[in-house]
């Protein structure tokens, strides 16, 4: 009996996550409504709050699915045997492609904010590791002088630089590069950062 209850609860959570994801795909994060999610999931409104603490927690589960997919896309972009600069270019291109192909889910990942006073759960914070996990190895090859903590920080900075260009472009900001130029501009940025990393670790720039 307990197993049956657990299975039903797991199925309910899956349906709600899939429904919320579909709603975000259709309308964006701002258009997400609890009643529409539960109607699509085929359950009562109260069932959502039995399965999740609130709508924000449901969004976190959707965002974790997005992070998992993004992590898989970045991992698939790695090139065995390639030099570090080539790998970083491949990772940047995969990130651009994922953001462009999944704009609403990708935007929800970075736009969602928990209410004041609510702390992000550790499990969701840990899921964000995929954003820099694949960068660390090729970056470490460029900067073997960095200790693990410094290397992690540099990977975060590298991600932030690429992400910022992508975000401003996809949001259509005045200072953002046109979307049709995004791939080339990100490639130029990564090339510049790669040359800079080499020169930082080797004064001769070799």
From TrEMBL:
Any Pfam family the entry gives: TetR_C_33
InterPro entries on file: Homeodomain-like_sf, HTH-type_TetR-like_transc_reg, HTH_TetR, MT1864/Rv1816-like_C, Tet_transcr_reg_TetR-rel_C_sf
Taxonomy, superkingdom: Bacteria
Alphabetic keyword roster: DNA-binding, Transcription, Transcription regulation
A GO MF label: transcription cis-regulatory region binding
Transmembrane segments: none
Domain HTH tetR-type: 10-70
DNA-binding region listed in the record: 33-52
Full protein name: Transcriptional regulator
Organism: Salipiger abyssi
